[in-house]
Amino acid sequence: TVSCPTAMAPPSSAMVGAFAAVFYGVVAVAMGFINKAVMSVYGLEESNFLLLCQMAVTVAVLFVLRGAGRVQLAPISLAQAKKLLPVAILYNANVAFALASLAKVSVPTYNTLKRLTPAVVLAANKALRLRPDPSKEVVACIVIVVLGCLIAGYGDLEFDPRGYVMGLTSCALQASYLLVVERTGAERGLSSIEIMVYNAMLSLPPLFLVVLATGELGSGMERLSAMSGDVGFVSVFVLALLAGMLLNYALFLCTLTNSALTTTVVGVLKGVVSTALGFFLLGGVDPSVTHVMGILTNTVGGVAYSCVTYSEKQAKRRMKVKNSDLDLAGSEGK
Q1: What is the pTM of this model?
Q2: pLDDT tens digit sequence for 93-104
Q3: Are 173 and 90 in contact (CB under 8 A)?
Q4: Are 290 and 154 in contact (CB under 8 A)?
């Protein structure tokens, strides 16, 4: 008798979820090193020009995918454009300053600076009285993050004032972006793909004017032309152009196929892994005991912050469910 080949079983949801989590983690870790390689290893220091290219490629690829029927994108209305424009400008200004900082400092130092964003949000909420004060645990975690950053900066043997200023400005802009989105609900009702393409479309004109005014357009094109024969540079540059879009997709896929806890844990591990690898890759770090201890303290504070905020969100969610069940039971008893 000849046995018939059995059809291959489709992958289980657990396997898909695990793949999505690993995929998101790998892309998130790789993105920082890819951008760092383009700017530091290959010398494309025009960070705004790089961002302009990334935004243009994002729009082009997503419109090609829409034409092929792979994604659905509704035309953006004038009202939506007016609402999203300030958010898009803040988001891209944050990315622009972040890239400029990454070009000047090491990956571990960059990660250390970026973890200060919650501290800026906390200060803004306190000054403007936008939200109730956070728990003592959250404040303690933020204090550890700030303390670690101060220690790391004090012991940084490669201290670059411009890189630190750029990183801190990026934190302020990211905090502003988060607060504006929270207060205005500008992105409410839009899918992640729509947010990505609308953001890129709205940011292209002002970003082009900035690149033109600073002279980065001409110098960036000259550098691209000079390096076009270098296969290594071309490969890394193409990856840099696609990395942002790929990261958004990876995050969306991980969130869709896994719990919020899994996505949070992967985000925390991503920060830890990229910081650890940054000590050795792409020039690494010129270590001092103080600098390393500061980065480790900052990382511990960042991990603790993620864990505490996640557990508090889950507690609030359970409380809402419990209250709704009590309300339902009360209405049924009448």
Answers
A1: 0.79
A2: 988 999 899 988
A3: yes
A4: yes
